[in-house]
Design brief:
alpha/beta, Fructose-1,6-Bisphosphatase, Chain A, domain 1, 2 domains, five-stranded mixed sheet, about 25% strand, globular
């Protein structure tokens, strides 16, 4: 399969408008309503809104780009693994932060990424409740410049505020981070995609996550890297260096901070 022929900007515009449509037509009308949910095998929950939103996004994306495969969170793992073998595929989390959504906590998002030849090339994360969109593509220049707010962030770990998901860390890593508190403070939004988007926006200094799924980080990694962040797994390898469905994550707004976090977790 050849590289998608549509212009980079056309793809970006389309996925941005699509994410906004899904948020306003499907997600927001269901918010604050009584929601039924079921448990998945991994213990996470899925609501009818997750499924409706994924169906809507898949239908629209495949109609507009029938030559590009579709990978969604709410698919079976075997199907997801097979789709990852395609040269080009959409990677979609229709409703990231489902537990927040089901609990009437307004921190949730829709994440859409285009993966081409093993790398994210287009990214869109939309937060429906605040009507805020975060978007980029591989063709856009990196945003790091002397005027960028990210450059004014403290790179020293003891001054940093990070997003940490303790639930998916192993005991040793969790004890290290909890007992010694090497950072200034930590947060967990309950939406991986939003944490990536906020890090890219300069709202926080790092992310530590024990095991994120591809749809959790596919769009976020591109956003963060375009903003100048440094990203790896706990062994120092980039999450997209090999074909995999999930990965531990270290992301930081500077080389120095990333180096400190990597040493801490190794």
């Amino acid at each position: 399969m050849t590289e998608p022929s549509q212009s980079q900007q056309k793809i970006t515009t389309f996925i941005n408008s699509l994410a906004i449509e899904a948020g306003k037509k499907i997600i927001l009308p269901a918010f604050h309503k009584i929601k039924s949910n079921t448990l998945k095998k991994d213990g996470s929950i899925v609501t009818e809104t997750d499924l409706q939103c994924q169906h809507y996004l898949q239908k629209r994306l495949q109609k507009a780009y029938p030559h590009i495969a579709f990978l969604g969170e709410e698919m079976q793992q075997k199907e997801q693994v097979n789709i990852m073998k395609n040269d080009h595929y959409w990677c979609v989390d229709p409703l990231d932060g489902t537990s927040n959504f089901a609990s009437n906590i307004p921190l949730f998002s829709t994440s859409i990424a285009l993966i081409s030849n093993g790398q994210p090339t287009h990214a869109c994360i939309y937060q429906p409740y605040s009507d805020e969109i975060f978007t980029t593509s591989i063709s856009q220049p990196k945003k790091r410049s002397p005027q960028d707010p990210l450059n004014n962030k403290n790179s020293a770990l003891q001054n940093a505020i990070g997003y940490i998901d303790f639930k998916r860390l192993n005991t040793k890593a969790r004890d290290t981070l909890c007992s010694h508190m090497p950072y200034r403070s930590q947060r967990n939004l309950g939406s991986c995609a939003l944490e990536w988007a906020w890090l890219a926006k300069g709202r926080g200094d790092f992310i530590i996550h024990g095991n994120e799924n591809l749809w959790d980080y596919a769009a976020g990694i591109l956003l963060a890297e375009r903003a100048g962040c440094i990203i790896s797994d706990f062994n120092g390898n980039h999450p997209f260096a090999t074909l995999r469905l999930n990965s531990p994550i270290i992301a930081a707004n500077s080389h120095a901070l990333h180096k400190d976090l990597l040493a801490l977790l190794q």
